[in-house]
Amino acid sequence: MEIEICWCTITFAVLIFIIGFYYIGYLIKVSMGPKRSFKDLKNKHVVITGGSSGIGKASALEAAKLGANVTIIGRDVQRLKNAVNEIIQKVAPANNQNIQYVALDITSGYDSVEKCFSNIEATLGPIFMLINCAGMCICGVFEDMKADDVKHMMDLNFFGTADPTKYVLSAMKKRNEGRIVFVTTEAALMGIYGYSAYGASKWAVRGLAEAINMEAIGTNVQVTLAFPPDTETPGFEKEELTKPTVTKLISGSGGLWKPDDVGKKIVHDAMAGKLYSTFGSTGKMLEILNCNGISSIWQVLTQCVFMGGLRFIMVFVLTNFYAIVNNDLAEKLISPNVKVEENTCTEEKNKDK
Ligand SMILES: *[C@@H]1O[C@H](CO)[C@@H](O)[C@H](O)[C@H]1NC(C)=O
């Protein structure tokens, strides 16, 4: 008798689960609308900011391989020329395929971005995919950073992304087709020692991108947010110079990636219409734990199943990071290189009186 009740309950639970599963799947499908994915980029125009080196150049190369007209944007004409030549040499573009560069300071304000982008569209056609890759990183503990550097990163990383994005959006919505890629960093998924101002500028980009993604629901315009880990680029080499040891230890735990692999994955994730493009197991874990977007019932199901366990693992990751910070602090205490200055607060207070 008892066994019968048990089976009955199990069958009922399974039934409820299956119905729930299909219902959520249905909700997701209806609310997100049809999603198109692309197999190649023939007859498409792809524009990449920060396209003369690193991840930007690698993305441009992949877009050219997939048959697109490609425009790379940067500041240094010589580097842009070299990048275009390299792409042409490696890809041997088709007759109707153009690879061009445009020199533009992406921080020069919306009006000049608009002017430049309308010229770009006039030569190689409407922009199908915009890859926002221009950016820079200056690291340091926040109190030691130059205020100008903090401002500059916001200018380049955030406004240098917001302006081109604003330009392409309305035309994309009108044509009901387009992809906008935002290249950020794993430091846009969690705050990391030494990445205060840099992380903030990339969190801003993430906030922008996720909101634009929701504003584009029901259209064929899609947003992809890429969170690359440390990648072997000229930008990364420069970043290393200002990077505190603690930051190196923490962010280096994700390994060092090749720009070609990162660029390739970003372009393909954008073609597939993925909201999040992450790299390696740490990236995947952070994506699941942040779970802001919905892409499919499978994604939702895996997140529901693994969330608790991942949080558990993340506690070990975080306490390991904290231990790195604590060790560093202990070392500084053993060999203090900070001069103790006289406290002038009390004197000033007295003066006020
Ligand atoms: C590239 O742009 C030119 C000029 O607009 C156009 O004729 C050509 O078909 C485009 N090719 C591709 C691959 O999009």
From TrEMBL:
Taxonomic superkingdom: Eukaryota
Residues that span the membrane, as ranges: 7-28
UniProt xrefs under CDD domains: KDSR-like_SDR_c
Main location as per UniProt: endoplasmic reticulum
Pathway: Lipid metabolism; sphingolipid metabolism; Sphingolipid metabolism
Gene Ontology terms: biological process: 3-keto-sphinganine metabolic process; sphingolipid biosynthetic process
Subcellular location: Endoplasmic reticulum
Record GO terms (molecular function): 3-dehydrosphinganine reductase activity
Keywords, comma-separated and alphabetical: Endoplasmic reticulum, Lipid metabolism, Membrane, NADP, Oxidoreductase, Sphingolipid metabolism, Transmembrane, Transmembrane helix
Keyword Transmembrane: yes
EC number assigned by the record: 1.1.1.102
UniProt catalytic activity: sphinganine + NADP(+) = 3-oxosphinganine + NADPH + H(+)
Listed GO CC annotations: endoplasmic reticulum membrane
Pfam families recorded: adh_short
This protein's record includes keyword Protease: no
UniProt similarity note: Belongs to the short-chain dehydrogenases/reductases (SDR) family.
Function, in words: Catalyzes the reduction of 3'-oxosphinganine (3-ketodihydrosphingosine/KDS) to sphinganine (dihydrosphingosine/DHS), the second step of de novo sphingolipid biosynthesis.
The protein's name: 3-dehydrosphinganine reductase
Organism: Plutella xylostella (Diamondback moth)
